[in-house]
Design goal:
The protein is of the alpha/beta class and 312 residues long. The protein folds into 2 domains: 270 residues, TIM Barrel; 34 residues, no CATH class. It is built from 11 helices and 15 strands. Strand 8, helix 6 and strand 9 form a beta-alpha-beta unit. The radius of gyration is 19 Å and the shape is globular.
């Protein structure tokens, strides 16, 4: 049986409490399932951000059905014991509506601005995997003891104990990270790979169908019999003619007009009128398994008809 679609709004342009409340309420009215916030304290490349955990607690107070998530917290910025405490509290305050997204951290400039060591990828990823083990245990209400290369926990429990463990979301682009997502996450967010120098790859090949299929395969192989939801942040481009819309995307991304055919088939790009985009999503659910899509709040009004077509 196919998973049902879910749709999230990424709070890209939220700069104030008023923005936050308005966006959360409007996302709920439009039928979106989740509001997610990023985790950065430098302005570039996503603009200034509110602190996600505090902001989501506020968003919970002005909504009733909208789920609330992080996309994704940098593991190195918080010890997993403190994060489990905050996640359990936010889940409690929201009535069980919280989804905890965590990643290994990738933005070197941010680490350096804060005076944090930007360790090699292997160390950051190793810390993340240990952290996920600890988080799963604490948020499941278990008394937790753990000794690893990076963390040592000696008989702690989390309070308040969630009625159900909040879903764990892992954003991943490399083979090792995707395997970790498959083993530990409830939702795997498929991303372009992070580069050693502290950026996200802009290579066209990272966005092509064969690459995405290979990444999905790594998640599935690691998950075994576990049913892991597949997620992706996508960029919809609306227009009556899908090919012309794809050509606009190719030019804006610096790939050239000759890449329009590639854009039409990219799993992260949806072009054309809402009805066409909805059909693309159905096709790609069958082809890759993606059922949870996130869009920027800047296009949530324009994208709402797609949500209605696939969830109404």
């Amino acid at each position: 049986m196919d998973r049902k679609f879910r749709f999230g709004v990424v709070g890209e342009s939220i700069r104030s409490g008023a923005d936050l409340a308005g966006t959360a309420r409007r996302a709920e009215e439009l039928g979106y399932d989740v509001l997610v916030l990023r985790d950065h304290f430098v302005t570039e490349p996503f603009g200034d951000q509110l602190a996600p955990m505090v902001a989501l607690a506020s968003a919970a107070s002005v909504t009733s059905t909208l789920r609330l998530g992080t996309m994704v917290l940098a593991n190195d910025y918080r010890h997993p014991v403190m994060l489990a405490k905050e996640a359990a509290t936010l889940d409690h305050l929201s009535g069980g509506r919280f989804e905890l997204g965590v990643g290994a951290g990738w933005l070197r400039e941010e680490y350096e601005a804060a005076g944090m060591p930007f360790d090699r990828a292997g160390a950051r990823v190793g810390r993340l995997e240990e952290s996920l083990t600890i988080l799963r245990s604490l948020l499941a209400g278990q008394k937790t003891a753990f000794t690893g290369d990076h963390y040592r926990i000696d008989g702690l429990t989390a309070f308040p104990v969630p009625g159900h463990r909040p879903p764990l979301v892992v954003g991943a682009g490399s083979r090792r990270m995707l395997g970790i997502a498959g083993r530990h996450a409830d939702t795997a967010g498929i991303l372009p790979r992070a580069l050693p120098e502290g950026a996200i790859s802009e290579e066209v090949t990272e966005r092509l169908p064969d690459t995405i299929a290979r990444k999905v395969g790594w998640v599935r192989d690691a998950a075994g019999e576990r049913d892991v939801e597949l997620s992706m942040m996508v960029t919809p481009t609306f227009g009556a003619d899908p090919r012309r819309a794809a050509a606009r995307v190719a030019v804006l991304r610096g790939w050239g007009t000759s890449a329009a055919d590639l854009v039409l088939d990219m799993p992260s790009q949806f072009v054309g009128p809402p009805e066409h985009i909805a059909e693309q999503m159905l096709t790609r659910r069958d082809r890759f398994g993606f059922t949870y899509y996130q869009v920027s709040d800047e296009v949530m009004e324009e994208f709402a008809p797609v949500v209605a077509l696939l969830t109404g």
